[in-house]
Amino acid sequence: MKVLMVCLGNICRSPVAEGVLRKLAEDKGLQLQVDSAGTAGYHIGSHPDKRSIKNAKKNGVDISNLVAREFSVNDFDNFDRIYALDANNLSDIHQLARNDEDKKKSDLLLNALFPGQNNAVPDPYYGGEKEFENVFQLIYAVCDKITDELVKELK
Ligand code: 4NP
Question: Which residues line ligand 1 (CB under 6 A)?
Fold first, then answer.
């Protein structure tokens, strides 16, 4: 199973989602391939935002080596599930979808925790430590549920 996490810059939220999902999958013995990307190209080649690295580290997840890249149409072929961190990200992903199958692979990440509520993981870029911690906790909760479900599904 291959899972892609997508936000705007691929430096604040989706690298945390990539790192957390990968760690929980490893902890639960799941064979998951995880990656992340941004819908915008501003930060291609950059490591995650220092505040995301610091906050994830505080919570036991190392994302310091990740490198930002831009989402591309090929990702529909390379991943089974594509999770968008907010509604703008999902809309940008849908703009690139070639057909319904592409569209069906993608959803808002938090819909896996709060079905049908269309909640966003808020962009912490202009926030402070509190916003980065909130992002981590939301992402952890949803990735914990996704991996629990995959453990049951793939057993
Ligand atoms: P991200 O956060 O989408 O969670 O990576 C942002 C990073 C950079 C910018 C906006 C959001 N930016 O405008 O450069």
Answer: 7-13, 38, 42, 123, 125
